[in-house]
Amino acid sequence: MSRIWVIATNTFREAVRDRILNSILFFAVLLLGLSLALRELSIGDTDKVVRGVALGGVSMLAAIVALFLGVSLVYKEIERRTIYTLAAKPIARWQLLLGKYLGIWLTLAAEVALLFAFYVIIVSPQQGLPGVPVLVSALMLMVELSLLSAWAMLFSTFASPVTATAYSLCIYVIGHFADDLHLFGERAEPGPFKTTALALYRVLPNLESFNLRTEAVHGVAVPVSELCWSAAYGFGYTAAVLAVAMLVFTKRDFK
Amino acid sequence: MSSVAAIRTEGLGKTYLSGFLRRPFVGLSDLTLSVPEGITFGFVGPNGAGKTTTIKMLMGLQAPTAGNAWLFGTPIADPASRAAVGFMPERPYFYEHLTAWEFLEFYARLSGVPSHERQGRITALLERVELARFRNVALRKFSKGMLQRAGIAQALVGDPRLVVLDEPMSGLDPLGRVLVRDLILDERKSGRTVFFSSHILSDVEQLSDRVAIVVGGRLREEGTIDALVGSAVLSVDLTFTGSAELAGAELLRADELGRTVRLPPAEVDAACRAILAAGGSIVAVHRNVRSLEQVLLTEVERARVVNEKQLGVLA
Questions:
Q1: Each residue's pLDDT tens digit, A113-167
Q2: A101 CA to chain B: closest CA distance, Å?
Q3: B144/chain A closest Cα distance in angstroms
Q4: How far apart are CA A7 and CA A86, in angstroms?
Q5: Residue in A closest to B114 by C-alpha
Q6: Chain A residues 7-66 with a CB less than 8 Å from chain B
Q7: B93 CB within 8 Å of a chain A CB
Q8: How far apart are the C-alpha atoms of B225 and B235, rounded to whole Å?
């Protein structure tokens, strides 16, 4: 376990010193600030518009960071051949990958905590301290990012960053339209389209399960049982994706 | 010193499948080798001979497609086999975001060095590879030679029983080469097993207790330097002054020191008498023995002939 932790902390250090990641974070904070301006430009319940744009922006940029880290950090080890000295240590490949994943997870957790802290700092003076639903939506966002980064990491164990990013984006988009995919499958005429749509729905993740932004914007509480079920689904799915990634990584030759 | 070999391979082989049609390409074939503990072992061969493939399999970076290998008696498929091994790959690239100190600390922790020993060991190693004053400089600012030295420090930081270095002299300037050579000599004196590949054969001759030559993915020769190159004198270079004419001698050069000729060893006595009789004097005598380079070139040529014959049979 200690070697996994050593790799995780090094990965975390590598990520937080990355200029690209810091630039994305800067834009996220900028977006939070700009969301306040919408108050002046919108009509109706302007506070909800600000909350919706701010939380939506944070989620989207956090997802970009998750994809960026998941796709790049393992690939960089292989591309820059730092993997040679790392894999030559008395550590199993699955431990190495788990260490990298934990490092990414720590970075994402720090990022989400930081962004929501900025959200509180920026939005509170106008709307008061955010309620529990906002905190719950942040925690569920973290479950989504865990799953998304695991997929990105799986792709990066065998594909180039461009291909892995494309695959991961597909997962992200399809994952957020999973309910529509299900509806399409249900309503389609029996045949290959119906079979494919329903198969994809069952195999690919339903990322909308973790989207509690609407509830956060409107201040609606979500039943605890539903939250637990979504979290168990998210972490269970993440573990399964990581297991496949470890299998691929263990079989891989470093040329 | 234990009786278990530091490295042992039996019929080790690697065949790559390349291209869309998955054509097989043999990177290494049937390597059987034993490296006893406590010696410095040179692994030589031309580019593409299979040196790096062998090292990558031993270090768990590639899986063999044939045969078996053990490090200190533990099969290489088990990560524990590398518990007492330090490794520096060819043309090392390291984490650019780390400083030299953070870099060595990372590998010390990965190698399981206890926290109370870490600081002292890293300080000593940084001094040994002459990087002490760059301890807080990020690796992205290091030159190639400095990275190579940091790489060797990384390989030694876990105080391993076996150090594996893939082309440690590659791309270094003369000063860097001397430093790395001295480091290997120090390790040799301290009784650590060093296994290194190189195509700088003068270094291999100087540093190794035993040498293995691989050509075309196959082991061609293995033994001590003396056993491989032999001690027989092939010819003698004689530099002399005066007007003596030496029949059968090959003139190498004529300069302000005199003429230098190459003679068969049996003719040296007669040549010296002739030079002195003609009123000249002998300035220098140099014996030519078989070098590792000649052994390697012979093996490369032999492999080429065998290859051509096989192709001829196939045609």
A1: 988 888 888 888 877 788 888 888 889 999 999 999 999 999 999 998 899 999 9
A2: 17
A3: 14
A4: 9
A5: A2
A6: 7, 10, 13-14, 17-18
A7: yes
A8: 19
Highest mean pLDDT among A183-197, B99-113, B178-192: B99-113
Q: Hey, where are the domains in chain B? A: 7-225, 233-289
Is B2 a residue whose pLDDT tops 60? no
End-to-end CA distance of chain A: 28
Q: State mean pLDDT over A230-252.
A: 95
User: What residue has token string 């004198």?
Assistant: B233
Coil, helix or strand at residue B112: coil
pLDDT-derived band at A1, boundaries 50, 70, 90 = low
CB contact under 8 A, B109 and A6: yes
Can you tell me the distance from the alpha carbon of B203 to that of B197, in angstroms, rounded to the nearest whole number?
Answer: 10
Asked whether the ipTM of the predicted complex exceeds the cut of 0.90, the reply is no
Say whether residue A127 is in contact with chain B using an 8 A CB cutoff. no
Distance CA B153, CA B117 (A): 15
Phi-psi bin for A234: left (phi > 0), alpha (psi -120 to 50), beta? alpha
Q: Does B140 touch chain A (CB under 8 A)?
A: no
Structure-block tokens of residue A207: 């990322």
The predicted-structure confidence for A69-101, as pLDDT tens digits, reads as follows 999 988 888 888 889 999 999 999 999 999 999
Higher pLDDT, B255 or B171: B255
- Which CATH superfamily does the domain covering B7-225 fall into? P-loop containing nucleotide triphosphate hydrolases (3.40.50.300)
Residue B7: strand pairing partners: B35, B71
pLDDT tens per residue, range B219-278: 888 988 888 877 678 889 999 999 888 888 889 999 988 999 999 988 999 999 999 999
In 3D, which of A123, A112, A116 has the Cα closest to residue A34?
A: A123
Greater confidence (A42 vs A13) lies with A13
- Answer yes or no: do B61 and A253 touch at CB < 8 A: yes
Q: Quick check: helix, strand or coil at residue B189?
A: helix
Compare all CA atoms of chain B with the CA of A4 and give the residue at the minimum distance.
B110
